[in-house]
Amino acid sequence: MSERRDVLHSWCVQADWDAPTVVGGAGARFFLEDGRAILDLSSQAECCNLGHQHPRVTAAIRAQAEALCYIANAWGAGSRAALARRLLEVSGFEGGRVFFTLGGADANENAVKIARQAAGKPHGLIVARERSYHGASFMGMALSGDARTQAQVDAEAFGVRRVPAPYAYRCPFGGATEEESGRLAAEAVGACIDAAGGRAAGVIMEPDAGTNGIVAPDSYWPTLRAVTRQRGALLIADEVMSGFGRCGEWFAWQRYGEAGRPDLMTLAKGLTGAAIPLGAVVLSAEVSARLEHEMLQTGLTYCGHPLACAAGIAALAAYEEEGLIERSRRMGGDLLAALRRMQARHAVIGDVRGGRGLFAVIELVADRASRMPLASWPRQPPGLKALAEAAFAEEGISLATRGNLIILAPPLVIGERELADALDALDRLMGRFFPPQEDSPA
Ligand SMILES: Cc1ncc(COP(=O)(O)O)c(C=O)c1O
């Protein structure tokens, strides 16, 4: 039975929705009703980091369901306690606390609330950036610099101030190098905090991967950390997408060592490998200490749902025991190298970036020398739409595209051969849908 008639689907024109029904999955593939196995090159919404139906996670859910599905946050639950402990251990946020949510948007909502309460500024301003995504709740949209959500909310009224993105390929500050571009973008946050004249409570940023296709240069996060610390603004790392190995570390900020540690970080997606909805806000020891003897002004019926937490514990064990974080780092490097070779063959590929883990972006251009976009953001060039359709219909590959971008974020369990074959298929499709022009050799 198709859900086409009865379900209101996300981020699409309802009349256009016509997707096949998925009935199962294993590893990096999901299975359609008609028997086809599709290679998932985006981990769905960059969330199935463990692939589909990871046996360890499904077994943990089954066992927890039989013992205790739900108990409210006013009571203790073993799986909730164990997951919080494990998260503090792998992140090194010892002495901190974990507030559990249902997903990414409400993790960010609550991180803002908690940061404002900890800063003693209940209406404190929050600095966020353009070309970002933090969720589709109202505060999530206010924080997001996303073309889909911008018109829906008055960000200023939510106390949000935005700065340009660390977009080195089209640097809004005119930076000549990646290093300069990242540094200038971080310094702009400092200027924004200064302009708020003491009213800023915090800053929220994606440290690495994001659906808007920005990959911050390495100079960005360390400078941002220094700039926020100097000004006493709490730094929230939105690790909803970049966490759990996606960028080659448990959490993307860890690439920069202790000096990169944020004051709070938000998690979701890979936290359970998407098997059950779960999000979290992880607080540093210092932020937790500020709240220790005050009433916390927030709560959710499903805060730390035992079933979801059991899935989280199993997911963390799978990342660790299967060496998936290191695997992502190694395969991410190989992925970026393969995309650079592909770029040398196709003039339409203007930029490739990412590759710190299994997350990489291909940006298509009409002209490589001038970097003229193939279509104005966020419009999708028809050739790219056709390429993604052919990838699915002919090659059995599910690709994520956005505007001029192809976002590659396969499950961390994808086979090396599987990924190499998919990249060969993508290479062929590039040649077919974007053949070289007579006067513009690749
Ligand atoms: C960086 C980031 N933050 C927040 C969210 C929102 O998460 P959710 O859809 O679970 O509310 C997303 C979702 O794509 C995300 O990529």
Query: Largest beta sheet: what is the strand line-up?
Result: 4-10-9-8-7-5-6
Largest sheet: 7 strands, mixed
- CATH fold assignment of the largest domain: Aspartate Aminotransferase, domain 2
- How much of the polypeptide forms β-strand, as a percent range? 15-25%
How many individual β-strands? 16
What does this structure look like?
By secondary structure, this protein is an alpha/beta fold. The chain folds into two domains: 14-53 and 323-433, Alpha-Beta Complex (Aspartate Aminotransferase, domain 1); 56-321, Aspartate Aminotransferase, domain 2. The protein has twelve helices and 16 strands. The chain has helices at residues 43-46, 55-67, 78-91, 104-119, 138-143, 178-195, 220-231, 285-291, 306-321, 324-345, 382-395, 416-433; strands at 22-26, 29-32, 37-40, 97-101, 125-129, 160-163, 200-205, 234-238, 264-267, 279-283, 349-354, 360-367, 372-373, 397-398, 400-402, 405-408. A seven-stranded mixed sheet has the order 4-10-9-8-7-5-6, sandwiched between helices. Helix 2 packs antiparallel against helix 9. The N and C termini lie far apart (47 Å). Pyridoxal-5'-phosphate (PLP) is lined by residues 45, 103-105, 108, 133-135, 206, 210-211, 238, 240-241, 268. The site of pyridoxal-5'-phosphate has 15 residues, from helix 4.
List the helices and strands and how they pair.
Elements: E1 22-26, E2 29-32, E3 37-40, H1 43-46, H2 55-67, H3 78-91, E4 97-101, H4 104-119, E5 125-129, H5 138-143, E6 160-163, H6 178-195, E7 200-205, H7 220-231, E8 234-238, E9 264-267, E10 279-283, H8 285-291, H9 306-321, H10 324-345, E11 349-354, E12 360-367, E13 372-373, H11 382-395, E14 397-398, E15 400-402, E16 405-408, H12 416-433
Helix pairs in contact: 2-9, 3-9, 4-8, 6-7, 10-12, 11-12
